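Human: If only I could read backbone structure tokens as easily as an amino acid sequence. Underneath my words sits a plain record pairing an amino acid chain with its backbone structure tokens. Take your time, and here it is.
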Amino acid sequence: MTSTSALHAGLQHALPELARTFRDPWWIIGSAAMKLAGVPGIEPRDIDVLCSRSDALRLREAWSDEVDRLFLPADEARFRSTFARFTHLPMPLEVMGALEVMTAAGWQQLRVHDDLQIDIAGYAVRIPTLADQRRILMAFGRDKDLAKAARISLSPEHPHVA
């Protein structure tokens, strides 16, 4: 299965549960959001979901049998959140509730400033605009994130679902 087909299959499996479980605004971020926005050359390995702490806890409870309890997120000194990874989907999904990033000014909660909605299997899915995706990746500051930020063209956005 290609990463594009795994991404869409993973979303089709996950979206009904996310719609039932989440109460607060949430977004797909990271490589999956870049792929959904049509950034070329991006091959996501997981679906990163940014949400509230309470929604992350609700999803962890709803999928309690599916939590990857052995997985430890990287860069715990740089990121903290109410985190869970689920691998029962065609593409793993990582939920990050109330994600905070360590900056020169200390811990800062990550916020999406500008977003857009795309339709996936009849569900309205929010992703940051390309400009906001670039800002978020720059804030993450790791080499891999800076390389991804450099791939984002800020030409007019025309997100699509393949």
User: Anything to note?
Assistant: Confidence is low (pLDDT under 50) at residues 155-162. The CA atoms of residues 21 and 62 lie 8 Å apart. DSSP finds five helices and seven strands in the chain.
